[in-house]
Structures are given as C-alpha cells and as structure tokens.
Amino acid sequence: MATEFLDTEYGRRLAYRFSPPRHGRTFVWLSGFKSDMQGTKVRVLEQWARGRGEGFLAFDYSGHGESGGAFAEGTISSWREDTLAAISNLTSGPLVLVGSSMGGWMALLASQAFPGRVSALVLIAPAPDFTEKLMWPTFDEATRASILDAGHVLLPSEYGEPYPITRALIEDGARWSLLDEPIEFQGPVRILQGQEDPDVPWRHAFRLIDQITSSDVIFTLVKDGDHRLSREADIARLIATCEEL
C-alpha cells in the first residue's frame, strides 16, 4: 500500500497506510517509541491481514517516520491524540489493537477511548507508564538534573542515533499512568514478551496483568527473546496469536 497523509484536528500531519476490511474488523498497528510503520513485524502483519480480508491500519506518530513534526516536541498526550485521530478518522467498526512497546500503552489508552469498538488487544513487550516507572528510576542524578534544569538530555540508543528525553515528556507521561488502578477492558488480551528484553523488563507485564480487568489474558514469555521480537519465529508467533483472535 502507498503511504497517504492525514491532517488531524490537532494540527499535525500523519503518514499512514490503510486497507479497508472485507469482514468488518480492522487490525491497527501501534508502533513503539522512536519507531515507525516500516518495520518487519508491521509489514508481515499487514500482508497477513490483507490476505485474510481483514482491515489494516498503520501510521507514524508525529515526529516519527514520515509524519510531520519534531520528535523532541512529542509527549504521551500528543501521541495519544495522534492515535485517537488516526483511528477515528480512518477506521470504522470493530478493532483489534496490536501495540509494540510504547504502542502497548497507546493501545490501552485507545481501548479506554473507544470502549465499544476495541474487541481485543495484542501487546508486544507492552510499556505502559514507561516514562515514570521504567525510564525515570534508571536515570542517575546528573541525567535527572539535566532534564529538570536544561529541559532535555540526549540518550544513546542501540537502535540508531541518540534521542532526546525532555522534561515535558516525563512530566506529561505521569498524566496518563495506568498501572496504579484497575484498567477496564473485558476482551481477550494477548501479551508477547522476551525474557532478555533490556528495555522493558518482563516483570513489568505482570503489573499490567494484575490491573487489567479482563479474565481472558494469556502471557507468553520467550526465554531468549529480546525487546523487538523480530526474529522469524517471533513474527510467526505474533501472526499465530492474531489468527487465534
């Protein structure tokens, strides 16, 4: 599918790919922090969905991939707005949200915003509350001081160039914390997690399992799996999980 663009009510331009469903259901891919819709997992899932006649939507948050805006200006609030705008403007009918890392947080937030439409969640190394519960506690005093005083810090990344972490990102993230109280969702939830994930510890997923109200939750731990879970066997497991739903 060719890339198209959506000008949202929030004044941001989002790149997306969409194919309408033949059966009424749409799978929505929600990317991770500093990731985009060109990855291997999303491309394979897209091909699978189209082959089955399922609808499929993938998009880049503002400041990511081909979308407009600067990454350093992004916050959880703005990326949530992007998610809600893409879903509300481009899809209709029932949804299965497939969220990777930060995309898992976005999927959970979207499930709260569209309670009548989200029928299931597939979460890969889900990272709800990562700014407050995973990122901030690991920073040393110098890094915290730089964020608070200068407003940002550049952190090295195993996946590319260093990226900025801003005070606005950290402070805004706390507004959208989910793991401190029950998360209302009654549909099927499937979680795929690597035990060797250096970015989102596998025990973090158990905080989500404890809080989500659905009784239909299955957690799959891949002992030698990393954060991306992009190996051939990992992707086959993702597709099998989506087929099961």
Helix-strand blueprint:
Blueprint (H helix, E strand, L loop, with lengths): L3 E4 L5 E7 L6 E5 L9 H13 L2 E5 L16 H15 L4 E6 L1 H12 L4 E7 L5 H6 L5 H10 L1 E6 L2 E7 H7 L15 E6 L9 H8 L5 E6 L9 H13 L1
Parallel strand pairs: 3-4, 3-5, 5-6, 6-9, 9-10
Antiparallel strand pairs: 1-2, 2-4, 7-8
Helix pairs in contact: 2-3
What would you say this structure looks like, in words?
This protein is α/β, with parallel strands linked by helices and 245 residues long. It has one domain: 3-Layer(aba) Sandwich (Rossmann fold), CATH 3.40.50.1820. It has eight helices and ten strands. It has helices at residues 40-52, 76-90, 102-113, 130-135, 141-150, 167-173, 204-211, 232-244, and strands spanning 4-7, 13-19, 26-30, 55-59, 95-100, 118-124, 152-157, 160-166, 189-194, 217-222. It has an eight-stranded mixed beta sheet, sandwiched between helices.
The low-confidence runs, each spanning 5 or more residues with pLDDT under 50, are none
Mean pLDDT: 96
Please give the domain count.
1
Spatial order of strands in the largest sheet: 1-2-4-3-5-6-9-10
Structural class: alpha/beta
Can you tell me the CATH architecture? Answer: 3-Layer(aba) Sandwich
- Helix-strand sequence: EEEHEHEHEHHEEHEHEH
Total helical segments: 8
Oligomer: single chain
Largest β-sheet summary: 8 strands, mixed
CATH topology: Rossmann fold
CATH class: Alpha Beta
- The gyration radius over C-alpha positions equals 17 Å
The name of the CATH superfamily reads Alpha/Beta hydrolase fold, catalytic domain
Say how many strands there are. Answer: 10
Q: What fraction of residues sit in β-strands?
A: 15-25%
Shape: globular
**End-to-end span in angstroms?**
24 Å
Helix content: 25-40%
